[in-house]
Known about the structure:
By secondary structure, the protein is α/β, with parallel strands linked by helices. It is built from five helices and eight strands; from the N terminus they run αβαβββαβαβββα. A hairpin with a 5-residue loop joins strand 2 and strand 3 (about 75-85).
Amino acid sequence: MKAKPKSKSKAKTKAKSATKTRAATKARTRAKSRPAGMQPLSPHLVCAGAAKAIDFYKKAFGAEEMMRLPGKDGKLMHACVQINGAPVMLVDEFPGMSNKAPTTLKGTPVTMHLMVDDVDAFTRRAVKAGAKVIMPVADMFWGDRYGVIEDPFGHRWSIATHLRDMSAKEIQAAMRGM
């Protein structure tokens, strides 16, 4: 028996599909690997009150707002600020979608680390804006002046100013000497 010839409409549909696939592939190859201003790795914070968190980060950390996408109910579906030159994404918590803020979870296992020019002044400004000191700023054995704060939204931030370069061997010796 002879095979039935394919209908012209099926062949046309297949050709259109292949053209769309090639166009989509070509568009992806033209796109950059990440949007302008984004880093290969960026924190994405879930906050109970993301709009208030943005206001806090502006006041406490000198953050610059990059984007804000509020939903119908006013909660932020996505936002992005830049802190010390690095993007930090934010979203309001939506417990039904399995994203909960540290305040809802009663803590966080994550600490963001910021390197700044003056850790003492930076920490004072953050505390004045409403942050809580978890570990007071002090000179550390690894060569940084370092402290830890918690923002009003439950996120922890270690903040440091680099004082001196040290080798791994020197840091280990300094740690043993504590």
